[in-house]
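Notes to self after the call with IL:
- keep both proteins in one doc
- input above output, always
- annotate only the second one for now

Protein 1:
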Amino acid sequence: MEEFSKVLKQLNDFLDSIKPGVGPSPKFTASHAIMCLYIIAEKQPIGRKKLSAELGIGEGSARSLLARLKRLGLLDISKKGLMLNKQGEEFLKRLSLLISPPKRVSAEKIAISRISTAILVRGVAEKVGNGMRVRDAAVSQGASGATTLIFMGGKLQIPGVSQDAETDFPEEVGSLVEELKPREGDAIILGTAERWRDAELGAIAGALSLLGVGW
């Protein structure tokens, strides 16, 4: 629990450090900042133009975001492109104690759109409630919505839908358990959309809302 709290504070401090200031500001969100690190980690070295297209933000906004990440000491920028340095890699490693990277999954029977991305969020099941806060956060990022599952009493549940989702939806939920390996008290967010990036950003926004961080 102590380690969880320390990493949560680190995440909150990170997001506070890159938050756009007052007045005309770059058009990126906390979800874009997290997704940016995941994309660089997966595709490095990557050019700024390609990265901005991957994130779905303008090059000017991407430039501002990258400048903030570099100022925090998380990136190296060279002629080859953008790469995470040791500090950036360590940050993502510690972040994995709170949330998993977004994973593209097939979950049409429990999601509202064709495309779904799953994120595991540690220790937040009791904060989910009816899932509306997570849904609203996902929609704010362009997703169609979100489905949240909680692992309570040794079972994955969908609040208001299923008390035993693995029995009711064996194919979809069984694959989520296998891929994400939830533990008691964890939550799984399915960000759903008509485009992969919107689903991923929506799932991240939902995760941040449950963790109580972001802007």
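Protein 2 (the one to annotate):
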Amino acid sequence: MIYSKEVIKHFKKPHNQGVIKNADSVGQVGNVTCGDVMKIYLKIDDKGPKSKPGPLIKDVKFETLGCAAAIAVSSALTDRVKGMTLEEALAVKKDDIVNDLGGLPAPKIHCSMLGLEALHKAIKQYK
């Protein structure tokens, strides 16, 4: 399988990897078929700044057990949603993450869905 330079970059040096102690919310999902497991931790600022009123993702971290694509998706997703309101984060689409990574091989597109599912689960839990 051929991965883009951006996927390799996020896989080798993932951004926002780790745990948030006392996270406001945690979303975890897994795929039985491929074995990938993703956990997203959120720290939420209830008010947000005046320019973006409403709950804001102040910090986000992830733990992912999976392939290079799954780790890269988690890293790119957390980069994208950090600083967004919850509503903005819920509007992020699979194609946004795939494009941020310069594309993914077709058999690995499901990894981008897992990342979004974990994020949505964490936001739903928070709400």
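Annotation: The first strand starts at residue 25 and ends at 30. The chain has one domain: 5-126.
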